[in-house]
Amino acid sequence: MGRREDPFEPLVEKLANDEFAVVQRGRTEPRAQRALSAEVTTARLHGFDLEDRPLIDSLPQLPGEVLAARSTVPLRRAMVGSDVVVALESGSPLRPIILGVLQQQLNPLPEQPEAVRQVAIQADGDRYVVTAEREIVLRCGDASITLTRAGKVIIKGNYILSRSTGYNKIKGAAIDIN
């Protein structure tokens, strides 16, 4: 009995100029490779549709048209207007896939206000320390906690509960209840 040949095993031929080419029986290009061929180009992220699918425009193959695209990267609304790298599945401009967002490195980041630059968060695994120059506000719906530079702690909400299994102490120079 002879050795049975695997129909999927590629044959390797040595060409005259010492390059190697992979050739399958009866074809020069595998079928899977032909189906995955894609053209890469750039476009502009136009926005998002009602289902949060990204929309692109300025595609060289379809100027003036806005198309829904798929994406391999997460996209945010802040990126709208940015240039994106787009692969056209099977070379079709009607099947765009966003591969990434081009980063603008030519212009340095705009100068941020002093207060924004002085916000710092330190984490050591046991606690987080948030430091700001003027004030820190934690907000969720109608509730907020504000810490000010002057030492004020302002707690606002529709319902505030202070509960303790131990001693609950209220201390101050003056205490005003109602």
Quick structural summary:
By secondary structure, this protein is mostly beta strands.
β-strand percent reads 35-45%
Can you write the helix and strand succession as a string?
A: EEHEEEEEEHEEEEE
Structural class: mainly beta
Q: Give the rounded overall mean pLDDT.
A: 78
Describe this entry's structure for a reader.
The chain is mainly β. Among the domains are: 40-101, OB fold (Dihydrolipoamide Acetyltransferase, E2P), CATH 2.40.50.230; 114-156, no CATH class. It is 6% helix and 36% strand. The chain contains 2 helices and 13 strands; from the N terminus they run ββαββββββαβββββ. It has helices at residues 31-36, 114-117, and strands spanning 11-14, 20-23, 38-48, 54-57, 67-68, 70-71, 83-89, 96-101, 120-123, 128-131, 135-140, 143-148, 153-156. The strands form 4 sheets. It has a 6-stranded mixed sheet with strand order 5-4-3-7-8-6, with no helix packed on it. The termini are far apart. The model is unreliable at 11-27 (pLDDT under 50).
Layout of secondary structure:
Elements: E1 11-14, E2 20-23, H1 31-36, E3 38-48, E4 54-57, E5 67-68, E6 70-71, E7 83-89, E8 96-101, H2 114-117, E9 120-123, E10 128-131, E11 135-140, E12 143-148, E13 153-156
Parallel strand pairs: 6-8
Antiparallel strand pairs: 1-2, 3-4, 3-7, 4-5, 7-8, 9-10, 11-12, 12-13
